[in-house]
Amino acid sequence: MRSVVTAPASVLSTSGEVVDPTDPEVVRLAEELVEVMRVSPGCVGLAAPQIGVSAQVFCVDVTGHPKAAITHGTLVLCNARIVEASRWRPGREGCMSVPDLTGDVKRAGRIVVEAVLPGTGEPFTLTTGAFEARAVQHEIDHCAGKLFLDRVAGAHAVYQRKVYL
């Protein structure tokens, strides 16, 4: 099983490649992402760059998280893009790839995402909100080579993590 890559690894600041979701290697990558997410305490999402692969593939599952008001269970998406975003608000975020810090990031509280599913390559549209929308946006950012630190308002909005997972 792969390990989570931490900043300042260059793969985290490089835009991931568009993938062929039917490629067996992409299907295996999708499976690995879910495996690593499930064994990482407190993890609600993981993108391919976070395990060292420059690809636009990520998984999210906020089921059971205290902030989760909406959940679609385990989602694994390829080549995702946000097509609608509204209800912007700030919120605190952390990241497995930036283990010592958290930060306040303004994100859309409601999004519509278009993507394709690994394995089948079928188009998939996700409409979600609240914490799940934040998690999906966070992972899409990873696929684009961005960390939550790239989105904070400034140094005043970055904090030492108080609870280590």
TrEMBL record:
The keyword Iron applies. Binds 1 Fe(2+) ion. It comes from the Bacteria. The active site is at 139. Fe cation binds at residues 95, 138, 142. Keywords: Hydrolase, Iron, Metal-binding, Protein biosynthesis. It catalyses: N-terminal N-formyl-L-methionyl-[peptide] + H2O = N-terminal L-methionyl-[peptide] + formate. Its cofactor is Fe(2+). Its EC number is 3.5.1.88. Belongs to the polypeptide deformylase family. This is Peptide deformylase. It comes from Actinoplanes hulinensis. The gene is def.
